[in-house]
Protein backbone atom coordinates (compact mmCIF):
# COMPACT_ATOMS: atom_id res chain seq x y z
CA UNK A 1 0.00 0.00 0.00
CA UNK A 2 2.81 2.39 0.66
CA UNK A 3 4.32 1.78 -2.74
CA UNK A 4 0.94 2.32 -4.35
CA UNK A 5 0.48 5.55 -2.37
CA UNK A 6 3.93 6.70 -3.35
CA UNK A 7 3.24 5.85 -7.02
CA UNK A 8 -0.08 7.64 -6.87
CA UNK A 9 1.56 10.67 -5.30
CA UNK A 10 4.39 10.61 -7.82
CA UNK A 11 2.05 10.46 -10.82
CA UNK A 12 0.55 13.94 -10.29
CA UNK A 13 4.01 15.36 -9.68
CA UNK A 14 5.32 13.87 -12.92
CA UNK A 15 2.23 15.09 -14.77
CA UNK A 16 2.70 18.58 -13.36
CA UNK A 17 6.39 18.56 -14.28
CA UNK A 18 5.67 17.37 -17.80
CA UNK A 19 2.93 19.97 -18.14
CA UNK A 20 5.27 22.71 -16.93
CA UNK A 21 8.01 21.52 -19.26
CA UNK A 22 5.60 21.38 -22.20
CA UNK A 23 4.28 24.81 -21.28
CA UNK A 24 7.76 26.31 -21.13
CA UNK A 25 8.69 24.61 -24.42
CA UNK A 26 5.45 25.74 -26.04
CA UNK A 27 5.95 29.29 -24.82
CA UNK A 28 9.48 29.32 -26.15
CA UNK A 29 8.32 27.81 -29.42
CA UNK A 30 5.47 30.29 -29.51
CA UNK A 31 7.86 33.17 -28.98
CA UNK A 32 10.13 31.85 -31.73
CA UNK A 33 7.14 31.24 -34.00
CA UNK A 34 5.83 34.72 -33.27
CA UNK A 35 9.23 36.16 -34.18
CA UNK A 36 9.38 34.21 -37.42
CA UNK A 37 5.81 35.05 -38.37
CA UNK A 38 6.44 38.75 -37.74
CA UNK A 39 9.53 38.70 -39.94
CA UNK A 40 7.64 36.72 -42.55
CA UNK A 41 4.80 39.22 -42.44
CA UNK A 42 7.19 42.14 -42.84
CA UNK A 43 9.00 40.43 -45.70
CA UNK A 44 5.73 39.48 -47.35
CA UNK A 45 4.40 43.01 -47.06
CA UNK A 46 7.58 44.56 -48.39
CA UNK A 47 7.81 42.00 -51.16
CA UNK A 48 4.14 42.33 -52.05
CA UNK A 49 4.34 46.13 -52.02
CA UNK A 50 7.44 46.05 -54.22
CA UNK A 51 5.79 43.70 -56.69
CA UNK A 52 2.66 45.85 -56.81
CA UNK A 53 4.68 49.01 -57.39
CA UNK A 54 6.68 47.30 -60.13
CA UNK A 55 3.53 46.01 -61.84
CA UNK A 56 1.90 49.43 -61.64
CA UNK A 57 4.97 51.04 -63.21
CA UNK A 58 5.03 48.45 -65.98
CA UNK A 59 1.33 49.02 -66.62
CA UNK A 60 1.79 52.77 -66.77
CA UNK A 61 4.73 52.46 -69.16
CA UNK A 62 2.71 50.07 -71.33
CA UNK A 63 -0.24 52.47 -71.44
CA UNK A 64 1.89 55.58 -71.89
CA UNK A 65 1.78 55.62 -75.73
CA UNK A 66 -1.98 55.09 -75.72
CA UNK A 67 -2.51 57.85 -73.15
CA UNK A 68 -0.23 60.17 -75.12
CA UNK A 69 -2.12 59.55 -78.35
CA UNK A 70 -5.44 60.03 -76.54
CA UNK A 71 -4.54 63.45 -75.13
CA UNK A 72 -2.87 64.49 -78.38
CA UNK A 73 -6.02 63.59 -80.27
CA UNK A 74 -8.04 65.82 -77.92
CA UNK A 75 -5.92 68.95 -78.51
CA UNK A 76 -5.87 71.47 -81.31
CA UNK A 77 -3.01 71.44 -83.83
CA UNK A 78 -1.72 74.74 -82.44
CA UNK A 79 -1.53 73.38 -78.89
CA UNK A 80 0.15 70.20 -80.11
CA UNK A 81 2.80 72.22 -81.95
CA UNK A 82 3.35 74.50 -78.94
CA UNK A 83 3.83 71.92 -76.16
CA UNK A 84 3.73 68.24 -75.27
CA UNK A 85 0.59 66.28 -74.52
CA UNK A 86 1.34 66.20 -70.76
CA UNK A 87 0.60 69.93 -70.57
CA UNK A 88 -3.08 69.04 -70.72
CA UNK A 89 -2.95 68.22 -67.00
CA UNK A 90 -2.00 71.84 -66.27
CA UNK A 91 -4.48 73.24 -68.82
CA UNK A 92 -7.55 71.00 -69.04
CA UNK A 93 -9.27 73.71 -71.11
CA UNK A 94 -7.16 72.61 -74.10
CA UNK A 95 -9.19 69.42 -74.40
CA UNK A 96 -11.49 69.48 -77.42
CA UNK A 97 -13.23 66.86 -79.53
CA UNK A 98 -13.20 68.81 -82.77
CA UNK A 99 -10.59 66.43 -84.19
CA UNK A 100 -12.91 63.48 -83.74
CA UNK A 101 -15.83 65.29 -85.35
CA UNK A 102 -13.61 66.14 -88.34
CA UNK A 103 -12.37 62.56 -88.48
CA UNK A 104 -15.88 61.11 -88.49
CA UNK A 105 -16.80 63.48 -91.30
CA UNK A 106 -13.79 62.31 -93.30
CA UNK A 107 -15.07 59.65 -95.69
CA UNK A 108 -11.59 58.26 -96.21
CA UNK A 109 -11.29 57.20 -92.59
CA UNK A 110 -14.87 56.00 -92.19
CA UNK A 111 -14.54 53.84 -95.30
CA UNK A 112 -11.16 52.58 -94.09
CA UNK A 113 -12.65 51.68 -90.73
CA UNK A 114 -15.44 49.69 -92.37
CA UNK A 115 -12.93 48.04 -94.67
CA UNK A 116 -10.84 46.97 -91.67
CA UNK A 117 -13.90 45.46 -90.01
CA UNK A 118 -14.88 43.67 -93.21
CA UNK A 119 -11.41 42.11 -93.36
CA UNK A 120 -10.80 41.36 -89.69
CA UNK A 121 -14.10 39.74 -88.72
CA UNK A 122 -14.29 37.16 -91.56
CA UNK A 123 -10.57 36.36 -91.31
CA UNK A 124 -10.91 35.72 -87.58
CA UNK A 125 -14.09 33.64 -87.85
CA UNK A 126 -12.75 31.51 -90.70
CA UNK A 127 -9.51 30.76 -88.86
CA UNK A 128 -11.33 29.85 -85.65
CA UNK A 129 -13.98 27.66 -87.31
CA UNK A 130 -11.74 25.85 -89.80
CA UNK A 131 -8.93 25.55 -87.25
CA UNK A 132 -11.30 24.04 -84.68
CA UNK A 133 -12.62 21.41 -87.11
CA UNK A 134 -9.13 20.57 -88.35
CA UNK A 135 -7.71 20.44 -84.83
CA UNK A 136 -10.43 18.02 -83.77
CA UNK A 137 -9.80 15.87 -86.84
CA UNK A 138 -6.07 15.69 -86.20
CA UNK A 139 -6.64 14.92 -82.51
CA UNK A 140 -9.39 12.28 -82.57
CA UNK A 141 -10.13 11.07 -86.10
CA UNK A 142 -8.16 8.34 -87.84
CA UNK A 143 -7.46 8.90 -91.54
CA UNK A 144 -4.56 7.92 -93.81
CA UNK A 145 -1.42 9.97 -93.30
CA UNK A 146 -2.76 11.89 -90.35
CA UNK A 147 0.61 12.32 -88.63
CA UNK A 148 2.36 13.30 -91.85
CA UNK A 149 -0.29 15.88 -92.67
CA UNK A 150 0.06 17.32 -89.17
CA UNK A 151 3.83 17.53 -89.58
CA UNK A 152 3.22 19.44 -92.81
CA UNK A 153 0.98 21.87 -90.96
CA UNK A 154 3.63 22.34 -88.28
CA UNK A 155 6.23 22.95 -90.98
CA UNK A 156 4.09 25.73 -92.44
CA UNK A 157 4.51 27.65 -89.17
CA UNK A 158 8.06 28.57 -90.12
CA UNK A 159 7.14 29.93 -93.57
CA UNK A 160 7.41 33.75 -93.44
CA UNK A 161 4.72 35.90 -94.99
CA UNK A 162 7.23 37.72 -97.19
CA UNK A 163 8.05 34.53 -99.11
CA UNK A 164 4.47 34.20 -100.39
CA UNK A 165 3.81 37.82 -101.35
CA UNK A 166 4.91 37.61 -104.99
CA UNK A 167 3.52 34.12 -105.81
CA UNK A 168 0.20 34.82 -104.14
CA UNK A 169 -0.02 38.22 -105.85
CA UNK A 170 0.36 36.50 -109.24
CA UNK A 171 -2.20 33.88 -108.28
CA UNK A 172 -4.74 36.43 -107.05
CA UNK A 173 -4.17 38.52 -110.18
CA UNK A 174 -4.79 35.50 -112.40
CA UNK A 175 -8.09 34.62 -110.70
CA UNK A 176 -9.21 38.25 -110.36
CA UNK A 177 -9.19 38.81 -106.59
CA UNK A 178 -6.08 40.98 -106.34
CA UNK A 179 -6.74 44.28 -104.49
CA UNK A 180 -10.03 42.99 -103.13
CA UNK A 181 -11.31 42.35 -99.62
CA UNK A 182 -11.73 38.67 -100.44
CA UNK A 183 -8.05 38.37 -101.34
CA UNK A 184 -6.90 39.90 -98.06
CA UNK A 185 -9.27 37.67 -96.07
CA UNK A 186 -8.05 34.53 -97.86
CA UNK A 187 -4.40 35.47 -97.33
CA UNK A 188 -4.87 36.07 -93.60
CA UNK A 189 -6.89 32.87 -93.28
CA UNK A 190 -4.27 30.77 -95.06
CA UNK A 191 -1.42 32.05 -92.90
CA UNK A 192 -3.44 31.92 -89.70
CA UNK A 193 -4.61 28.32 -90.06
CA UNK A 194 -1.29 26.53 -89.31
CA UNK A 195 -0.98 28.14 -85.90
CA UNK A 196 -4.70 27.63 -85.22
CA UNK A 197 -4.57 23.93 -86.10
CA UNK A 198 -1.40 23.40 -84.08
CA UNK A 199 -2.83 25.15 -81.01
CA UNK A 200 -6.27 23.58 -81.03
CA UNK A 201 -5.08 20.09 -81.94
CA UNK A 202 -2.77 20.02 -78.91
CA UNK A 203 -5.55 21.34 -76.68
CA UNK A 204 -8.20 18.93 -77.96
CA UNK A 205 -5.82 15.98 -77.63
CA UNK A 206 -5.82 16.48 -73.84
CA UNK A 207 -9.57 15.85 -73.57
CA UNK A 208 -10.15 12.51 -71.77
CA UNK A 209 -10.89 9.72 -74.23
CA UNK A 210 -13.43 8.22 -71.84
CA UNK A 211 -15.55 11.35 -72.11
CA UNK A 212 -15.69 11.14 -75.89
CA UNK A 213 -16.38 7.41 -75.84
CA UNK A 214 -19.22 7.90 -73.38
CA UNK A 215 -20.76 10.48 -75.70
CA UNK A 216 -20.43 8.10 -78.65
CA UNK A 217 -22.10 5.32 -76.64
CA UNK A 218 -24.99 7.69 -76.01
CA UNK A 219 -25.47 7.95 -79.77
CA UNK A 220 -23.66 11.23 -80.48
CA UNK A 221 -22.20 11.57 -83.95
CA UNK A 222 -18.96 13.37 -84.72
CA UNK A 223 -20.63 16.71 -85.44
CA UNK A 224 -22.77 16.58 -82.32
CA UNK A 225 -19.80 15.39 -80.29
CA UNK A 226 -17.74 18.29 -81.58
CA UNK A 227 -20.44 20.89 -80.91
CA UNK A 228 -21.73 19.61 -77.56
CA UNK A 229 -18.54 18.29 -75.93
CA UNK A 230 -15.35 19.48 -77.61
CA UNK A 231 -16.31 23.09 -78.27
CA UNK A 232 -17.39 23.88 -74.67
CA UNK A 233 -14.26 22.24 -73.26
CA UNK A 234 -12.05 24.05 -75.77
CA UNK A 235 -13.65 27.43 -75.17
CA UNK A 236 -10.61 29.05 -73.51
CA UNK A 237 -8.23 27.92 -76.26
CA UNK A 238 -10.65 29.04 -78.97
CA UNK A 239 -11.06 32.42 -77.29
CA UNK A 240 -7.27 32.83 -77.07
CA UNK A 241 -6.92 31.96 -80.74
CA UNK A 242 -9.64 34.44 -81.67
CA UNK A 243 -7.93 37.23 -79.76
CA UNK A 244 -4.56 36.49 -81.37
CA UNK A 245 -6.00 36.34 -84.87
CA UNK A 246 -8.07 39.50 -84.40
CA UNK A 247 -5.06 41.48 -83.18
CA UNK A 248 -2.83 40.20 -85.99
CA UNK A 249 -5.28 41.04 -88.75
CA UNK A 250 -6.43 44.37 -87.30
CA UNK A 251 -2.88 45.67 -86.83
CA UNK A 252 -1.53 44.31 -90.11
CA UNK A 253 -0.23 46.76 -92.68
CA UNK A 254 2.06 44.71 -94.95
CA UNK A 255 -0.59 42.39 -96.36
CA UNK A 256 -3.16 45.18 -96.52
CA UNK A 257 -0.70 47.45 -98.30
CA UNK A 258 -0.15 44.86 -101.05
CA UNK A 259 -3.45 42.98 -101.42
CA UNK A 260 -6.12 45.46 -100.30
CA UNK A 261 -7.94 47.86 -102.57
CA UNK A 262 -5.81 51.00 -102.92
CA UNK A 263 -8.95 53.14 -103.26
CA UNK A 264 -10.46 51.80 -100.04
CA UNK A 265 -7.56 50.59 -97.87
CA UNK A 266 -7.76 49.39 -94.27
CA UNK A 267 -7.17 51.77 -91.41
CA UNK A 268 -3.46 51.08 -91.01
CA UNK A 269 -2.77 51.84 -94.67
CA UNK A 270 -4.98 54.94 -94.57
CA UNK A 271 -3.02 56.32 -91.61
CA UNK A 272 0.25 55.64 -93.40
CA UNK A 273 -0.99 57.42 -96.51
CA UNK A 274 -2.11 60.42 -94.48
CA UNK A 275 1.31 60.66 -92.85
CA UNK A 276 3.02 60.46 -96.24
CA UNK A 277 0.80 62.98 -97.99
CA UNK A 278 0.32 65.62 -95.32
CA UNK A 279 3.42 65.26 -93.16
CA UNK A 280 2.57 66.60 -89.71
CA UNK A 281 -1.19 66.19 -90.08
CA UNK A 282 -1.45 65.37 -86.39
CA UNK A 283 -5.04 66.55 -85.94
CA UNK A 284 -6.14 63.73 -88.26
CA UNK A 285 -3.50 61.15 -87.45
CA UNK A 286 -3.84 61.27 -83.65
CA UNK A 287 -7.58 60.51 -83.41
CA UNK A 288 -7.29 57.95 -86.21
CA UNK A 289 -4.39 56.21 -84.48
CA UNK A 290 -6.24 56.18 -81.17
CA UNK A 291 -9.34 54.64 -82.74
CA UNK A 292 -7.16 52.00 -84.39
CA UNK A 293 -5.65 51.16 -80.98
CA UNK A 294 -8.73 51.29 -78.78
CA UNK A 295 -10.63 48.58 -80.67
CA UNK A 296 -7.98 45.84 -80.10
CA UNK A 297 -7.63 46.94 -76.48
CA UNK A 298 -11.39 46.69 -75.97
CA UNK A 299 -11.46 43.22 -77.53
CA UNK A 300 -8.56 42.05 -75.37
CA UNK A 301 -10.03 43.32 -72.11
CA UNK A 302 -13.49 41.98 -73.02
CA UNK A 303 -12.12 38.43 -73.41
CA UNK A 304 -9.30 38.72 -70.89
CA UNK A 305 -10.69 36.03 -68.60
CA UNK A 306 -11.01 33.49 -71.43
CA UNK A 307 -7.56 34.41 -72.68
CA UNK A 308 -5.94 33.83 -69.28
CA UNK A 309 -7.87 30.57 -68.85
CA UNK A 310 -6.65 29.32 -72.20
CA UNK A 311 -3.04 30.23 -71.50
CA UNK A 312 -3.11 28.66 -68.03
CA UNK A 313 -4.82 25.54 -69.32
CA UNK A 314 -2.15 25.12 -71.95
CA UNK A 315 0.58 25.69 -69.37
CA UNK A 316 -0.84 23.10 -66.98
CA UNK A 317 -1.35 20.52 -69.70
What does this structure look like?
The chain is mainly alpha-helical and about 325 residues long. The chain contains 14 helices and no strands. Helix 12 (about 265-280) packs antiparallel against helix 13. The longest helix is centred in the first third of the chain and has 72 residues, at about 1-75. The chain is flat. Mean pLDDT is about 80; it is low at about 1-35.
Structural descriptors:
disordered N terminus, mainly alpha, single chain, 317 residues, 81% helix
Quick recap:
The protein has 317 residues and is mostly helical.
How would the blueprint of this fold be written?
Blueprint: H1 2-73, H2 77-82, H3 98-104, H4 107-140, H5 146-156, H6 161-175, H7 181-204, H8 209-217, H9 222-233, H10 235-250, H11 254-259, H12 267-278, H13 282-302, H14 304-316
Helix pairs in contact: 1-13, 3-13, 4-7, 4-10, 4-12, 5-7, 7-10, 10-13, 10-14, 12-13
Radius of gyration: 32 Å
For the biggest sheet, the summary is: none
Head-to-tail CA distance between termini: 73 Å
**Number of DSSP-assigned strands:** 0
Arithmetic mean of pLDDT: 79
- The number of distinct helices, counting runs of at least 4 residues, comes to 14
Instruction: List unreliable stretches of 5+ residues.
Output: 1-34
User: What structural category characterises the helix and strand content?
Assistant: mainly alpha
User: What string, H for helix and E for strand, traces the elements in order?
Assistant: HHHHHHHHHHHHHH
Helix content: over 70%
Shape designation: flat
